[in-house]
Amino acid sequence: MKRFAFAVAAAGIAAAFDAGASCGAAFCLVNTDWASQGALADGIHADLHYEYVTLDQPRHGTDRIAVGEIPRHHDEVETRNRNVVGVLDWGLAPNWGASVSLPYVDRYHLHVHNHHGEQLPETWNFREIGDARVQARYVDSAMAEDASRMRAWGFTFGVKLPTGKHDVANDEGEEAERTLQPGTGTTDALLGVFWHGAAPLGGWSWFSRAQVVLPMNSRDDYKPGNQLLLDAGLRYAIGNNAAAMLQVNGNFRGRDSGANAEPDDSGQRQVFVSPGVSWNVTPDTQVYAFVQLPIYQAVNGVQLTADWSALAGVSFRF
């Protein structure tokens, strides 16, 4: 049963991260949370995954537009996000657990600065630690009605800490826009609920989750918008070691605020479909990969979006 619980996890233990911003800072929205997907065994779990997110399509509302088609002080061109996210998770007891996640952000950004009739390209290229997340969870222990079906529900709570820099500058000394920075500079409350179930004899498992991210303060005249993340997914076991997976991921974020924010060009509504596969290399080691495809994107003002993103990683149970 423990081996099955590990397989149900489908893809690691990382919490979902902020996705999308006016200038293109982004993390993949695929849900790789073991707790919400059913890996409830006690002990320590670790996950390391790589995210490939290139935002190079300007969008206005739901419409794709060309760079500079709707003039802004900065015409956003491209942001390449290559993130590595590491997570440690502890199953402290049958009903309680905790996790810590930390991203390493590799980001390149290009925009055109419109200044007194001149168009000046500006770039940033940095590699920095991002904002850490610390979360606890409670899981209802009454899981099984019979031997053929399992189900459980639970909730999570925690904080996003301002461990990432929010004042990174380029070689010319120009600080990047706050939405591009590796950290927001704020401390955010993380609150979520989840439900999952499985039919082990049939090889099926499923989950759903809702999480809100609520910034509790501002930093240097910037406060990110509130965020709601919604996820649902299915997993089907193929033999003893492989699985096919499908998720639907939703991101609904409000406008940023403050003198250093861009409220007119922040906030979005996004829905993605994310097919994936996993393989149990050993009973305690799993590799996985997802592709994330947008099916609906609506942004406030003008923002960069991605036509597709990808995520791959490896998970361990100790």
Tell me the total number of β-strands.
16
Number of distinct helices: 2
Structural class: mainly beta
Mean pLDDT: 87
Q: What is the CATH C level class, in words?
A: Mainly Beta
Helical amount: under 10%
General form = globular
What is the N-to-C succession of helices and strands? HHEEEEEEEEEEEEEEEE
Largest sheet: 12 strands, antiparallel, barrel
Strand order within the widest beta sheet:
1-4-5-7-9-10-11-12-13-14-15-16
Distance between the termini: 16 Å
Query: Any guess at the CATH architecture?
Result: Beta Barrel
Polypeptide structure, described:
With 318 residues, the protein is mainly beta. The two termini are 16 Å apart. Helix content is 3%, strand content 58%. The model is unreliable at 1-17 and 19-24 (pLDDT under 50). β10 (188-199) and β11 form a beta hairpin. The protein has a twelve-stranded antiparallel β-barrel with strand order 1-4-5-7-9-10-11-12-13-14-15-16. 45% of the residues are buried. The chain is globular and about 70 Å long. The chain has a single domain (2-317), classed as monomeric porin ompg (Porin, Beta Barrel). It has two helices and 16 strands.
